[in-house]
Amino acid sequence: MHTVKELREKYIAGELTPSGVVAEALDNIKKLNPEINAYLHIYDDAVEAAKEADALYKEKGADTPSLLGVPVAVKNNILIKGKKATGASKILENYTAVYDATIIEKLRAEGAIFVGSTNLDEFAMGGSTENSAFGITKNPVDPERVPGGSSGGSAAAVAMGSVPVAIGTDTGGSVRQPASYCGVVGYKPTYGAVSRYGLMAMGSSLDQAGPLTNTVADAEMVHNIMSGLDKMDGTTIADDTYPKLETKDKYTFGVPKDFLKEGVDEDVLSAFNAHVESLKAAGHEVVEVELPLFEKGLAAYYIVMPAEVSSNLARYDGIRYGLSAEGDDLLDVYEQSRAEGFGPEVKRRILLGTHVLSSGYYDAYYGKAELARKKMREELAEVFAGVDFIITPTAPTPAFKIGENEDPLSIYKQDIFTVPVNLTGVPAISFPMGTVERDGKELPVGVQYIGPHGGDARLFDVGKAVYDEQK
To answer: Against a cut of 0.85, is the pTM above it?
Structure first.
């Protein structure tokens, strides 16, 4: 699949047409999706939209929207009016969205053609896409392995070559970790840079939508289209909220060495160290930094996130919309609908979240987690006073085999490097840094660059220099 830039150039030159590219995308999905299960729904109206894009290019050429005719896949917890939006949950199996998410409106205005919706862990709860009510998504690199999660379907859609752009959501690494597992680029923006209106809420203070692409340049283009103030989301921020950070020829990178001592596979750490050496060879400065509270981030996250989950998922009660089971009385309807509609991981997080918010435990757990979160932000601000970026592996291992990690805690640990980013609200990008061998196959592993609040443009700048220009 071509990059967005390449498609645009070839459309304008008449070397390709949106109809041809969309037909190729749909053919790719038809051939590969039965095995990979990246897509939950395919949109037939994409063909007609492509024909309209053909006509616009013939009429206006380069004077057309920047994504005109580009096929895009969308995670199925993002609302597209008139399309099924299930969140990969039985409780919303037959729900049809009645409005567009803000980011969908923005992408549509730039000419994007939505070819289908992608699979995910139910309500974005999971790190492997094994928790979907509609089947496991497989990794196109090795179908015996998971694609990561919760945006595994979106990462797989790009990795299998069906689309150059897929949209995911990132609550604790759910764009970046599957990007690492599938060998693509994944971006999580500064919290508030992108509207959450029309996203199914999981953790409201953590969720952000971000692109999965083949290049950093494509991720930048799509992010810039989706970002900006939105009157429908009071958490969105203006462009001048944070000081504008100038781009540089050479940057200073901070490596939290103590953070990398435990739990990282030896060959993943070797690939990371090789990446660090390549930065030094290119003239960048690399220094060691201390982030002791970041090492506690996983524990804080798995208190804050379930607490917000328990609140946000209270709306799925069998009364207002979605699955409604029969019961002897109102309480029984609630209980039966949720028992039948929610999967094990969702139930686990609701129960945990309800517990930490309950009387007698709120201060002991949730209050302390929020205090730790505040201290993490302060710690991060101090570190960014001396470095431009912090870098870590995106995940401590490559993609694991389907069914290999039955213990939920073992999957939670895959988020150790990504969840502090969401807790503190800063932006981060993941792109491939090499491969490691498992069972005779080369599996991709990603490196994560973390920037300060509002440092999105600088992250894209360094990502294009370090990754795109070296491809």
So the answer is: yes
Which one is catalytic: 150, 151, 162, 227?
150
- For residue 270, pLDDT over 90 is answered with yes
Query: Residue 261's pLDDT band (boundaries 50, 70, 90)?
Result: confident
Sheet with 113-118, strands from edge to edge, namely: 39-42, 113-118, 71-75, 165-170, 208-213, 185-188, 428-438, 441-450, 389-393, 252-255, 285-288
The domain ranges of the chain are 1-471
Band (296; pLDDT cuts 50, 70, 90): confident
Note if 75 is an active site residue: yes
Q: Please say if 410 is a catalytic residue.
A: no
- Please tell me which residue in 75, 83, 106, 138 is annotated as part of the active site: 75
Q: How many CA atoms lie within 13 A of 236 on its CB side?
A: 17
Q: What is the mean pLDDT of residues 442-453?
A: 98
User: Of the residues 174, 195, 310, 430, which is catalytic?
Assistant: 174
Enter the CATH code of domain 1-471.
Answer: 3.90.1300.10
Dihedral, 426, 431, 432, 433 alpha carbons, nearest 10? -50
Burial degree of 262 (CB within 10 A; 0-12, 13-18, 19+): exposed
